[in-house]
Amino acid sequence: MSEGTTDPGQKPKHLTNIGRRASPLDISNSEEGSIPEFESFIMLPRGIPPKLDAFLEVLSVDLLRHPTEINKQQHHTDKYDYLNLIVRRGQNFTMKIKFNREYISNKDQFWVEYLIGRSPRIDNGTYIVAPLTEELKKDKWGAKILSIRDETLTLAIQSAPDCIVGKFRMYIAVMTPFGIRRTPRDPGTDTYIIFNPWCKDDTVYMENDAEKEECVLNDVGIIYHGEYNNIQHRNWNFGQFESQILDSCLSLMDRAEMPLSSRGNPVKISRVASAMINAKDDDGVILGNWTGEYLYGLSPSAWTGSQDILLEYYNSHRSVRYGQCWVFAGVFNTFMRCLGIPGRVVTNYVSSHDNDGNLITDIILDEEGKVDKAQAQDSYWNYHCWNECWMARSDLPEGFGGWQVVDATPQETSDGMYRCGPASVKAIKHGFVYLPFDSPFVYAEVNSDIVYWKRWRNGRKEIVDIVGNQIGKLVLTKENGKNAQMDITDQYKFPEGSEEEAIALKAALMYGTKKETSIPQASKDCTLQVVVDSKVPFGSDFNIKMDFGNNSRQTLNIKAYVSGNIVYYTGVTKREFKSSTFEFNLDSGNYKKETVLIKSKDYMNHIVEQAFLQFITTASIEPSGQIVTSLNVVSLIVPKLSIKVLGEPVTRNEITILVEFTNPVKRPLENVNLRIEMPGNMRSKTTKYSYISPNETVSWAVKFVPWRPGLHLCFASLDCDALRQVYGETEINVR
Length: 735
Known about the structure:
Structural class: mainly beta
Strand content: 35-45%
CATH topology of the largest domain: Coagulation Factor XIII, Chain A, domain 2
CATH architecture of the largest domain: Alpha-Beta Complex
Radius of gyration: 31 Å
Number of domains: 4
């Protein structure tokens, strides 16, 4: 190899912009480029500064940045735990400048500058000049003098409604005959500019005040989980106003190397963030884990909020272990609300993961009617959480703005990365799956059919049963201003069997979504109804009751098979724990009941995650050769934590919160983690119990001093290998 060349298999240590562009691409909010305090217009003798005493000089700048002052109050940023000024774009704010003498309007000239990034430029919005003007214009930067009192000027600064969001360096520039004189670099005057749902000219403008209050300003939310017949909920501390959270959210775009010039576009930001929240291909915030093994990290169900996750990632620069869909959705929601984009967490019950995009969730049976797990590729999740973000979509035809689906859970790649969205909710409902981004995948999540196939040993397959109206059974989010669920299923799909639904499906097929259309559905000789209690206490025995009916005119021979499986909430089977087969003859017009007893010892040693048990019942009918099927999910009810307040909750007085738990399982619990927090008053605290015996009650007393008055939610979680998703909550009114 000749001197000066490199090994072609070796990755270069650093790639520069040379040969591609004149200057490096600005991709970091945290990096700074220097700007001279004095920018000379004329040649001056070296080492001899010009005499500027006779000209206007800035002595101090007051940004009125205290939470009780006008700026943060009017911009709805008073909850942010930041000393710096935080304002929303497209809305004017106030500052006071004190000069060394009185300002003379026909003699003195000054303006305000805002810079972001390493190489600020006026042409891409990273170098902003706000000049003095008689009247402010709502669509451009400008400064207007509101009042003059002695040497102090009060200015109104108008920002553009489409400007970059981020942390800007602020300077006051004064013109002199020798050049431009700027205020020294002062981190205290750095100004954060974020999106503005209150501004009609901002692309995230939201008209409904109740929605803004909930989807922008509420820092505590509810995430729904469980099963659609047994809806459960857990509280989540979004914590978007807490110290360092805004910086951590801005740093995510730096880590993604997102150009600063694109950071005024909520479509681009949400798409970048949906990739960065997961660690699948870019070392993002959260490492997903659905194995049930959580070595070197926390179980996803142990988390109670986003703050600890974002701050750990921000300070360590390493992906946080571990998360599942509700954790990805909770953290992504924090990111959106922190930057000012309205967002909410949505739960879709019975959510399809359609790998081949044919709007069918396939279940393969062998020749005897037993489930062939080796052939399973598709799955449906008992529930799946994603996010909706509110924004205009200038990249789509008119009418498809508003709520957009964005999903940070790494399921499938989009443009080469694990991300999903933003996809217009309205486009999904109407079947316009050609509109970006990832609409076909989201459409399938709420619109698939479950199809049972019989597979012979020679590889031939035949459809034996179809179950419609099972996928996308219920779509929920938190109601605005209330701790209650809001059903938004009708925003995603038309009523089952309606003419509108048929038109939407036809549109989806026309625009490229595949679907098996020639599916035979012959009348069945035998009916099968399976009744299982959808709510079974954790560790209890229960029955599966089956009712067979003969619709034919002949005696039927029925071979039935019941398969009980431990499944993750994603629908993926861990193992089969129960297998029961029985055969009988059934005369024409008759009915027969069968019962299968499920004992706790059958499943308790194999239980995973959120304690879902799936039962697939199949029956082979002779002489017709038909197969009838039924699929049922049992959600085991886990106990609740008890939370009590000891003492009078008064600001700046110590109180005690008592968390109690009784082990309901017939075996000891080991390595039990408890976590508690009270957003706005107490950061999360943790403790650990190495061993809790059956029926033993443990108590954890947590002492702290509340400092913020009002009604606050306090919630806790318990987590161990044998028991997950144990929560408790209480409201505390601090006086």
